[in-house]
Design brief:
Radius of gyration: 65 Å
Helix content: 40-55%
Number of strands: 21
Number of helices: 20
Largest sheet: 8 strands, parallel, barrel
Length: 984
């Protein structure tokens, strides 16, 4: 055994590596190294090799030892210096040179493979780097493509939104165009109605053309039917004939075949007979064939008969078709003749109508021209007379002004003279008083001296010589009698005449008690008195000025009247001035407080906000049921008993008068809520029925309608609906109508009411309302005709013409003397303001309520004490109140504002702003309305010529309408709720 210690580099081993790792990692590395770099050992001898390798590699230097021995196993192991690795075997073997050469070759091969592997590894690393770079590029390209896709998606999305917006705008424009087209259609219909004669002529021409077309169509259809019948007959005949021919040929062929067979059988039979054989079988066969031929011929004959019958039927049908065609031709000829006759008659009638229309037009033109001439002449004459009156009034006023100025100058002169005289007398009085106070007592020798008096007044002189002379010699002349009398009349309390000085000194008139300067009469500070010339002149001048202004106003109204239409100037009874804005001044709970005293202080605020009339609660003492919860009698006033007792739950009669006076002080109308349909009785009849009334109007059962099921009335049947809670009054009785008229006049004249709100007018005929209104002459009257609207499947129907027609029928029954609440408009607004604005326009382009058919008699409202307040029978949507008030305050009719909305809901400023817009635009109950848009997105309308309003969320302004000329300024802007524009 030999041992050879080979260096590590001699065998081309892998280089050493210092590895510090876990056992698991060492195992993995060793195994991978052995698998990746196998080492092949060649041996010439056929002996078994055993390779042993440890699982732990260390970083120290190692030696490789090979051992070889015949018939022994070779052992290879790693030996680490100092680590205790030993070679297994008894002794070291020596390696042959061949093995060394083989080992070297193996090592070189291993090195080459290792280099190839390293090159492959480098190539793979490069490819990996390239693939990673490509992957990064691909990821970058993917991100770029993603960004591009996102950008394109956003662009497509924005383009889609833009297209969607364009489509929405296009839809809106199309809808607006559709509405405009409808309006144009309505206008065209009006023009067609105006051109009736042309329309009739065109209609007749169209009728004739249509009749001719129908006749020609009938002729063509008849000809086509005849042709189809003939073609059908021809086809059926040909088919039947061909079928018969085919069947006959088949039968003949069969017969020939049978004959041939019979001939064959005959020959056979002859042959058999000749051969002395029995032919019975053949004869039987021939007979059977003969029977078959006969049956076939019979079938053919029957089919021929059927075909002939069908041909006959078809011939009959053809004849009938010919007859029908001839009849249709005759009818067509008759129709043509009738059409020709009708055309001639219509032409004659058209000519006659045209001639009549021409004559009528000429007459109308002549009459209109004559009326215009007469009116213009009358107007000129009246204008001249008015001008002459104005000139005369001006001349008289000028002359009186001159007289007044002259009188004023004279008065001023007399005033200056009186002031000068007063000043002189004041100086003299001061001098006299100083003289009397400062004089000495007379001596004894002077006692007999005589004082000289001048009319009872001492003439005060500054010179003593003159004074003594006058005192001694007396006056220079005596006063005339007329002067003395005048002095006595002017100053009756002058002191008496003094004879001597002692008498003058002892007299009580020695000291002169003159008035103070401030107490002296002055014309500048004296108050005017009746009877003074100056005051009378001033009053006369004021009267002349009033007359002049009245004449100028009459002239102005006369000129305006020729410019306005009849509808603008005509004011009918029961509608007021046309500019009323009513406030319902109470709610269902107002009776719980002293309401008259609470409402009266609000009159100034209501007038300042633009309200013109206040609807007060029922004034009469009321009998009302008890509240189930609070056990309190509810006295809202709608169950009256004693009509003349006005001490109700709202306040006393004096408080009511005070409230009405406050309304009148602020120029507000006071409307009384009167209940005329029913009245509560105060006594029971012997039958125990409450049908005897008390108070001043002590009626009995004869005042109750006989068809009232609860109160056994003895009157006539009711003229309306029955109110079941109280006795229904029979207004056909003369004494009932007389008493009601006296009561209404008492409320009008003594209490101070200006108009009426009539409760439950469905209970009696409107003719009685007319009589009551004409008797009481109210400034304004409203009827409560509350009826149900039309619904279908729980939804409000679009067409509410029947509902508003019933209200208008009641107004017609009153002969237009009363207006009525527009319940139709209220009901439609409930649904329309929820993006269903198309409900606000009818097929004629007008508003859909009573305001669209008779606006001057329509009283629009949103809520009252029944629909809202604490009752809430039919409350208006609270979030749509501002839109509702924007609608009724910007449209014709008479709007009513509910007290709760104005003061309790915080809408005072909003409503005041809308009232101001209505006032500035000059909207009244007869203003015209033109609707531009009414769809799901909003509503636009022009009222009169100076106001345009919009409700809804779509974008619109007056500049987008071609029909709206002029400059429009936005007055109210509430965004998507509503907007108002006024013409500048």
């Amino acid at each position: 055994m030999g041992a050879i210690l080979l260096p590590e580099a001699a065998f081309g081993f892998l280089p050493r590596h210092s590895v510090v790792s876990s056992r698991k990692h060492h195992n993995h590395v060793s195994n991978s190294c052995l698998k990746s770099h196998p080492i092949i050992f060649r041996n010439t001898s056929s002996r078994k090799r055993k390779l042993l390798c440890t699982n732990n590699w260390l970083h120290k230097s190692r030696s490789v030892v090979f051992s070889s021995q015949d018939n022994h196993s070779e052992t290879f192991s790693d030996a680490d210096d100092g680590d205790g690795y030993l070679l297994e075997g008894s002794e070291a073997l020596e390696a042959d040179e061949d093995e060394l050469v083989a080992a070297r070759k193996a090592l070189t091969d291993a090195r080459a493979r290792q280099e190839a592997i390293e090159k492959e590894r480098d190539r793979l690393l490069e490819e990996l780097a390239q693939s990673e770079a490509k992957q990064k590029e691909y990821v970058a390209s993917l991100m770029h493509d993603k960004e591009l896709a996102i950008a394109e998606l956003q662009a497509v999305k924005s383009l889609f939104h833009q297209k969607l917006q364009e489509t929405v705008e296009e839809k809106f424009t199309l809808e607006s165009k559709l509405v405009l087209a409808r309006q144009d259609a309505v206008e065209l219909a009006v023009q067609v109605e105006k051109l009736a004669e042309v329309a009739i002529h065109q209609a007749t021409a169209h009728i004739l053309e249509d009749a001719q077309l129908r006749i020609s169509a009938a002729e063509t259809s008849a000809a086509q039917a005849v042709y189809q019948i003939e073609d059908q007959i021809r086809n059926t005949a040909e088919s039947t004939i061909s079928a018969v021919v085919e069947q006959s040929t088949i039968a003949i062929d069969k017969a020939l075949i049978v004959a041939e067979r019979a001939g064959d059988h005959a020959t056979k039979s002859v042959a058999a007979f000749a051969d002395a054989t029995s032919p019975a079988d053949e004869i039987a066969a021939i007979q059977s064939h003969n029977f078959e031929l006969q049956s076939a011929t019979r079938n053919l004959e029957s089919q021929l008969l059927l075909a002939r019958s069908e041909i006959d039927k078809l011939k009959l049908e053809l004849e009938q078709a010919h007859a029908k065609a001839k009849a249709s031709e005759l009818r067509a000829n008759d129709a043509e003749k009738a059409l020709l006759e009708f055309q001639e008659s219509m032409k004659e009638q058209n000519l006659q109508q045209q001639e009549e229309i021409r004559t009528l037009l000429e007459k109308l033109k002549k009459d209109a021209a004559e009326k215009r001439k007469a009116a213009s002449e009358a107007f000129k004459l009246e204008l001249e007379s008015i001008k002459a009156a104005i000139e005369a009034a001006k001349e008289t006023a000028h002359s009186k002004d001159e007289a007044y100025s002259r009188r004023c100058e004279a008065l001023h002169r007399s005033l200056r003279a009186s002031e000068a005289a007063l000043e002189m007398w004041r100086r003299r009085a001061e001098m006299a008083e100083s003289f009397l106070l400062n004089e000495k007592q007379f001596s004894e020798g002077d006692e007999d001296a005589i004082f000289v008096v001048n009319g009872g007044r001492i003439d005060l002189l500054t010179d003593d010589s003159l004074k003594l002379k006058l005192l001694s010699d007396g006056p220079r002349r005596e006063l005339p009698e007329w002067m003395a009398q005048r002095i006595r009349t002017l100053r009756p309390k002058f002191p008496p005449r003094k004879v001597d000085a002692s008498e003058a000194l002892n007299s009580k008139f020695i000291s002169l008690d003159l008035p103070k300067p401030d107490e002296v009469w002055s014309i500048a500070t004296e108050k005017p008195k009746e009877g003074d010339t100056l005051i009378e002149h001033v009053i006369e001048k004021e009267i002349i000025e009033k007359k002049r202004k009245a004449l100028e106003g009459a002239l102005h109204r006369k000129t305006i009247q020729w410019q306005k239409t009849l509808e603008d100037t005509k004011l009918e009874p029961g509608t007021g001035t046309g500019h009323e804005i009513v406030l319902q001044g109470f709610n269902w709970e107002s009776w719980r407080r002293q309401w008259y005293l609470e409402l009266a202080p609000k009159a100034a605020d209501l007038s300042q906000c633009g309200i013109t009339a206040v609807w007060l609660p029922p004034p009469t003492e009321s009998v009302a049921p008890q509240d189930k919860d609070t056990k309190i009698l509810k006295k809202e006033g709608y169950m009256p008993s004693d009509l003349y007792n006005l001490n109700s739950a709202y306040g006393t009669e004096e408080e009511l008068k005070y409230c009405i006076d406050e309304m009148h002080t602020q120029n507000l109308l006071a409307l009384g809520d009167v209940v005329l349909n029913h009245r509560c009785a105060q006594k029971q009849s012997p039958n125990g029925v409450w049908n005897i009334f008390g108070g001043k109007l002590a009626w009995g059962p004869e005042a109750i309608v006989c068809d009232d099921p609860n109160f056994q009335g003895h009157g006539n049947p009711s003229s309306g609906d029955i109110f079941h809670a109280a006795p229904n009054i029979d207004h056909s009785q003369d004494f009932v109508r007389r008493d009601i008229k006296e009561w209404l006049n008492w409320l009008r004249n003594d209490i101070g009411f200006d108009g009426w709100r009539l409760d439950f007018v469905r209970g009696f005929s409107g003719t009685y309302v007319k009589e009551y209104i004409e008797a009481s002459n109210p400034a304004f009257a409203i009827g409560e005709y509350w009826d149900s609207l039309a619904y279908e499947g729980g939804n409000l129907c679009y067409n509410q013409d029947a509902h508003r027609q019933r209200i208008i029928n009641w107004i017609n029954a009153t002969d237009g003397t009363s207006s009525a609440f527009d319940v139709t408009t209220k009901g439609i607004l409930h649904s329309a303001l929820h993006n269903q604005y198309w409900r606000l326009i009818d097929p004629q382009g007008k508003p859909t309520g009573v305001v669209g058919w008779w606006p001057s008699r329509a009283v629009t409202f949103l809520e009252n004490h029944d629909t809202g307040s604490t009752q809430g029978h039919w409350p208006f949507p609270r979030d749509k109140l501002t839109q509702g008030y924007a609608y009724i305050l910007s449209h014709p009719g008479t709007p009513v504002i509910f007290y709760d909305h104005f003061y309790d809901f915080g809408l005072r400023d909003v409503i005041t702003e809308l009232i101001e817009a209505r006032r500035r635009a000059g909207i009244h109950c007869r203003s015209s309305v033109k609707i531009y848009h009414a769809n799901n997105e909003g509503y636009v309308a022009r009222t009169g010529e100076t106001l345009v309003m919009k409700i809804g969320h779509f974008d619109w302004n007056p500049s987008k309408e071609n029909d709206l000329e002029g400059t429009w300024q936005k007055f109210v802007d509430k965004g998507s709720d509503y907007q108002l524009w006024l013409r500048q």
